[in-house]
User: What shape does this take?
Amino acid sequence: MRLELRNISKRFGAVLANDHLNIVIPSGTIHAIVGENGAGKSTAMRIAYGFYRADSGEILVNDEGREIRAPLDAIALGIGMVHQHFMLVRPMTVTENIVLGAEPGSALLLDLKTAAARIRALSEEFKLAVNPDAVVEDLSVGQQQRVELLKALYRKAELLILDEPTAVLTPQEVEEFFTILRRMREQGKTVVIITHKLSEVLAISDNVTVMRDGRVVGDMRTSDTSAAALARMMVGREVLLRVDKPPARPGAAVLSVRALSIAGRRGERRLDKVSFDVRAGEIVGVAGVEGNGQTELIEALAGLLPESQVSGSVAFGGQDIRALDARRRREAGIAHVPEDRHRRGLLLGFSLAENTILGVHYRPPAVSGVGSVLLNEPAIRRRAELVIREFDVRPPNPALPARALSGGNQQKLIIGREFELPPVLLLISQPTRGVDIGAIEFIHRKIVALRDSGCAVLLVSAELEEVTALADRVLVLHNGRIAGEVDPARVTHEQIGLLMTGGLGPGKVEGLGPSDAEGHA
Amino acid sequence: MKQLRDLLFPLMAVLCAFAVGALVVLFIGDSPIETYRLLLGSALSWPDGIGYTLFFATPLIFTGLAVAVALRGGLLNIGAEGQLYVAAFATAWVGITLSNLPSALLVPLCCLAGIAAGAAWAAIPGVLKARFGSHEVINTIMLNFIAVALVGYLTQYHYRTPGDPIMESAPISAAAHIPRLGQFIPGLPARIPLNVAFLLALVACWLVYVLLWKTKWGYEIRATGQNPSAAEYGGVSIRKEIVLTMAISGGVAAMVGIKEVLGYRYRYYDGFSDNYGFTGIAVALLGRNHPVGVIAAALLFAVLQRGGVPVDAFTQLVSKDIVLILQALVILFVAAEAMFRRGGRRQGAGGTI
Assistant: This one.
């Protein structure tokens, strides 16, 4: 199916989200639309799907002008969309989810058998292996995404719009996902992927449209471009895709973790006798497929897990800190940038100023007066202004609620707050998840600068490139254990990938440095 | 801009309620203009109208404030009714038992006893939630029944004057009485029961405002209410905050019992509360969980309550049930508006550009 957006404009209040867009998506291709957050790419595709109505312009499907007033119109035309956040009913089965809204059978009776058979045929045809009888909440994220794809295919979609489809996938799942997309193209489907990951654009797409500030700034065959060229078009200036950092000059061990084990809520083992050190002035990266114990490791070190779930020893500056709660640990100089900024890191309804004191809100300078009870508003404001200035948070208004900021600016606010502690040890998880390229570069430079000022940094990221670019040493977690420690300058991603999936035992990868933990034990 | 909108929504709800109420009056066959003129005219006349309106508003300010504090901390306190009953009884108990004390000691002691009782009663569901995760809505509702039964029992079998046909305790010491405002305000007759508790209600609103928005404790309460995970990350003990917030809420609700005993009945009187604890939920909702909003909402409800009397007496067909209808309509429109707002936010959140 050929889709064309002609002269599409859309305004939200003062923001012109789409400014006379012209995008042509040829039939039977995989088309990438790239741009930073807020560039207008999601808006354009939501207009095509009938979620929004354009203020002006027209939509052509197979060269015919069409009115798309609502998603139902789009579906009737054969346009499907898979959102970044899945729209699945978690306690229901795969089949029930797929037929939802298009239930087969008579008016009263639901005919799930026929539906299940059709779903099996579809998964066969597109190699989308999913058990139609499985309950959605038991499925992995990658499988849930397949359910979303099947949902669109079940509704006879000829063109699929995928919004940031790989954001939630592990590297292995991304590969499988790309295979599925290629399979769809072979079967004559048209695929549009909205993304800001350039490596994926180059790996999968036939054509690419680059957007910036609501306009199309580039439109080309993927084979004719490069990551650097795309990044320049997206950001509007030259972007450093590599992190420039001088070699680390590590000092004494700041954090010493020995035989740390963590039990989950139901008693299952999330982390199994992990031992490592983080020294002053170095960045230790933790690589691994998500869900292999990284979250628990960071939460345990930050003092956010109940002591009963944690065993082993954690020494910070030579002192055992296992008995300290989150507040005492922060007082000792452990800063924490959490992996999920909305769940942990921010009070979305609070102002930026109020957010910049979270964690230090109970002591001067945030409070003053008798017994340090009253909030010191001028001091809080000054702190907020400092963070906003140092970390280029936009818009720079301390009175705005945190909710009003884009993801990248929210992240800069959190990082700025934690850097202000100032930290002796920084625990930082997914520092650039959902953040624009320009801001990624900025955040990376700040982390390296913090390291060079003598701070110990423990970095967890699902982006392998980020870990290898930033870290001085990389620990690979698999199944709650350290599968190996590698020197990021001397190994390939494939080798780390093997460790991440448990493909190799420790010590078998070339470039594997001597493990600090073993050295001390 | 945002503050303006926050004001606008409740105002719209009230106007809509009055508009639909007017239709009801028309349908009955009376004049809406005449009805509303009677209602507002009598509620706002000096001194009887305003005196009684403020008197009626006093308990609603306290309970509205109590519910609002809890909601700011992420807790729905449906137990203000029970809390104000145990507080009233504790207040009366001190007023009877320590009757030898001078006024300067007895009044503060009575107040302290009432607040402590209300706070402790509210802390029970707080502890249950913090320790076992049981939901405060269920526990506060159940504790209402227990509170009413408990103080009823104590009154009936232990503190009733023998031979008194009414379910009430013996009178408290005269030293424990708090003065009526008529003593200080020229033109306000002493027969109007409006007393200094009204001023205490305003002070309580100011104190709660300072607590919530100007102190570190309030910061922690609001942070817990807004996002417990983030508060925990910020070094706040969620369990402690739950108990503390419930206790503060119960302490504020307790003021209703205190004002009833020290300023109006001068004894514990069984079943004195006109569902103040439950109306407080509507007051907090209409007042946007803000102390100033709570005052405004309580005044509105009090106007309706005061204005209903002449409507009953001086119209042909409309009974004072029109007040109940108007109250119900206000609550309905406020609730509908809350849904509308939430829907709007969801759409907004989806609208990434």
